[in-house]
Amino acid sequence: DPPKLFWGRSRMGKGFAAACRCGAQSVPNQDSFFFVEFAGRDFVMGVMDGYGPDGHKYSDLLSWHLPLQLIGNEQFPHNVPEALAATVATVASSVRSQLGVKRRDKDQTPSGGACA
Question: Which of 17, 16, 23, 22 shows the shortest CA–CA distance to 5?
Answer without folding.
Answer: 17
